[in-house]
Amino acid sequence: MLIYTHALDIYHTQYRMMILFNSIYKEFTIEQVRIFDFMIAFPSYLKKIRKTKNVKIRATMNKYEFSGSFQQCFYLMEQIQISALLSLVAKNIVLKNENKFIRNINFDFIYNKISSIEKTKEQDEALSLIVGMLSDINTCGKDGLKDRTNLMESLYDPRI
């Protein structure tokens, strides 16, 4: 039996990453891209993020909600996410600046096509949360993105 999951599809991963880069024009670290891509792929995970005092996260339930281990799935997605991101860099759609990634404004015609494609309600809510709140949170340190999401090891990160 063949089972398809969008989380392990490199082309769907590239699509999600281009949606992310289209939503906000700023530099991202590889950890941020991986975590944000995971949240776009699994919007139901948003309710598991440790919140700040001022922010309320309302995550809608997906009718195909994932019932396995999110950490294990995030680990399985690592090589696909890295390959997808490096493929976008090789195609010059995303620019790599030291350890940061940013979209290439010369390829705005691609991003305009992507923004015209309709996204699901869950993806829209995940994107608005990522753009609105999570993109401003530091990746490392106590209460950083890794610590809040519990998807990546943050114990040995430098404390900011």
Structure explained in plain terms:
- The chain has 160 residues and is mainly α.
- It has one domain (6-50, 60-149).
- The chain is 46% helix and 6% strand.
- The chain has 6 helices and 3 strands; from the N terminus they run H-E-H-H-E-E-H-H-H.
- It has helices at 10-23, 30-41, 70-90, 108-116, 121-132, 145-149, and strands at residues 28-29, 94-97, 100-103.
- It has a 3-stranded antiparallel β-sheet.
- Strand 2 and strand 3 form a beta hairpin.
- Helix 1 packs across helix 3 (70-90).
- It is globular.
- The mean pLDDT is 78.
Low-confidence parts? none
Number of helices, counting only DSSP H or I runs of 4 residues or more: 6
Oligomer: single chain
Distance from first to last alpha carbon: 48 Å
Radius of gyration: 15 Å
Counting structural domains, the number is 1
Strand runs, count = 3
The helicity comes to 40-55%
Strand percent estimate: 5-15%
How much is the average pLDDT?
Answer: 78
Largest sheet: 3 strands, antiparallel
Structural class label: mainly alpha
Strand order of the largest sheet: 1-3-2
Shape: globular
What's this entry about, in short?
The protein is mainly alpha-helical and 160 residues long.
Descriptive terms for the model:
46% helix, three-stranded antiparallel beta sheet, globular, 160 residues, mainly alpha
